[in-house]
Amino acid sequence: MVSVNPFGRRKGPRCIRGLFCGSRSDGWSVHEPTKGGNMGRRKREHKQDLLIHVTAHAIPDRLCCPDQSSRTRFVQLALSASTREPCRVHAYAMMDNHIHLLMAGERDGAIGRMLKWLLGQHAVCLNKVEGRSGPLWRDRYTFIPIENEVHLLRSHLYIEANPWRAGLVEHPNQSTWTSFHFNGLGQKDELLSPHEVLLNLAGQDGDWRAAYRQFMDEYIQTAIRYKSPNRKALYSDPLAGLHVYGVDLR
């Protein structure tokens, strides 16, 4: 039986909005000076099998996924990118002005190289379709390392509930541009592979997707009861107030 404690608040480093790309303990990014004295960006070398939640935003006057064809093209490019630089993708959401990916690299540095190629190729293709030039993405992607099994489930729910929180659908199962169609409904998606934690949700009937759908339904009901009418979080952490427990994740 899956149950939810709506009043439990996550403590510790910033879970969703923090940028774990530097050495500061408070979770914000750090850019260190180069030897020449100029400020330079720290190279991102994600270790093998490090599971991270990636977010990339379009610049203010652009849409990165304005229609279904651009979303289809992004998934196709992501599949090619994950083959070029071996990565496992477990969840995604493609919103009009930003994207989410839950992923892990199969080699050191694979995620950074994969995302560099993917985001660059998507920008080139979209510019060609729209007959324009210039940047598409706002600065670099942000990422949050997944800390444990519960954090993984919370991230899955957060990513796949994005269209619902934006008021675009009545339930995540109505969205055609997130990974819920795979993780929740069992539809085919060559880009995705289920994470071991989700597979371990299976009960006696062996249906882990039924258990995951129950998580999502309780997430939606809890959000309706304890979050603001526009479906935005009451706290800085979009999943504050939602602690899932009572499931054996071993």
Helix and strand topology:
Elements: E1 3-5, E2 51-57, H1 68-84, E3 87-94, E4 98-105, H2 110-130, E5 142-145, H3 149-160, H4 162-165, H5 180-183, H6 196-199, H7 208-226, E6 243-245
Antiparallel strand pairs: 1-6, 2-4, 2-5, 3-4
Explain the overall architecture.
It contains 7 helices and 6 strands; from the N terminus they run ββαββαβαααααβ. By secondary structure, it is α+β, with helices and mostly antiparallel strands. The radius of gyration is 18 Å and the shape is globular. It starts with a strand and ends in a 5-residue tail after the last strand.
Put the structure in a nutshell.
This protein is of the alpha+beta class. The chain contains seven helices and six strands.
- What share of the residues lie within helices? 25-40%
Strand order, sheet with most strands: 3-4-2-5
Output the radius of gyration.
18 Å
Contiguous helical run count:
7
Query: Which architecture name does CATH use?
Result: 2-Layer Sandwich
The global form is globular
Mean pLDDT: 77
- Give the biggest sheet: 4 strands, antiparallel
User: Proportion of β residues?
Assistant: 5-15%
Low-confidence stretches: 1-40, 233-250
CATH C-level class is: Alpha Beta
The oligomerization state is single chain
Structural class: alpha+beta
Instruction: Write down how many β-strands occur, each being a DSSP E stretch of 2 or more residues.
Output: 6
What series of H and E elements makes up the topology? EEHEEHEHHHHHE
Distance between the termini: 16 Å
Give me the CATH fold name.
Answer: Alpha-Beta Plaits
What is the H level of CATH, i.e. the homologous superfamily?
Transposase IS200-like
Number of domains: 1
